[in-house]
Design brief:
The structure is a homodimer. By secondary structure, chain A is an alpha/beta fold. Chain A has a single domain (2-172), classed as 3-Layer(aba) Sandwich (Rossmann fold), CATH 3.40.50.2020. Chain A contains 6 helices and 9 strands; from the N terminus they run H-E-E-H-H-E-H-E-E-E-E-H-E-H-E. Chain A has a 7-stranded mixed beta sheet, sandwiched between helices. Chain A is globular and about 40 Å long.
Chain lengths: 177, 177
Amino acid sequence: MRDALKAAIRGVRDFPKKGIVFRDITPVLADPVLLRETVERLSEPFYEQDVQVVAGTEARGFILAPAVALHLAAGFVPIRKKGKLPCATHQASYALEYGTDTLEMHRDAIKPGTRVLMVDDLLATGGTMKACCDMVQAAGGVIVGCAFLVELTFLGGRAQLDPHPVFTLVEYASEEE
Amino acid sequence: MRDALKAAIRGVRDFPKKGIVFRDITPVLADPVLLRETVERLSEPFYEQDVQVVAGTEARGFILAPAVALHLAAGFVPIRKKGKLPCATHQASYALEYGTDTLEMHRDAIKPGTRVLMVDDLLATGGTMKACCDMVQAAGGVIVGCAFLVELTFLGGRAQLDPHPVFTLVEYASEEE
């Protein structure tokens, strides 16, 4: 199964800039069998974890997180770019290559003790996910883990997310793999 | 059921600007029962329609479209803002209040004859969805319908999407409803 996923993911050279191999998961999403397998396998480690909500971050985190939520009979909480959510929010800032960006989550979305699974499509440096985890914890949420379809292990994102359990389906050890 | 959904949706006054009542669906998404019911009921009219892919547009269209795709045993195709997709794309431009914006879809995502269901969270004026439908049709896709959780009927979006079948779960006849 992991081989079928990896075989379907396209490496696109020099996107979005020279030297980067972009891991394009759209062929996985477009295939009904691979889409289902992705959601089932991302959910599997958390079946006995009493996940109450699955959080996903705009935009690509919105693709898999709600489907995993449905599979785990949990709710979905969107983490959005600043200014998009209409009610009172928690905020988290994280560093970009130049400057910072801010993400928001509704204050009523996660109560103290809520068990939260974080889902995104790809783990790179982990900066965005770490900011999201910090925000969820500041709200009192208990993070049961972070699950990703793809992990770029050579960028060290997993260490950033310590001590949260990190679970990934497809790993790349270098840009060239 | 429709009442439970409507009861959960929050009207937030003067967001994003004065005079607008923003229909906030995040309480529906956060509730496992309402999330499941939303996905099932958006899928239901299309069970016998041989849907091959469900298309959703960045960012909020990414929330429900992949879940509906899973429910219909279809694939998911993301329609993204310009410059986000790494491979060759079709493009569609649509009018904003000031200027225009451009959306893209991978060229290999929809082949001539592919049966496509369009899913988004909210139908307002229909401008974005119309641009997406036109792009899918230009690629040779056959649109079996457009499904939305919420319809703001007073904005006339349904007529914009003619002759595509439009299916919505919760309707608002005015800003004040």
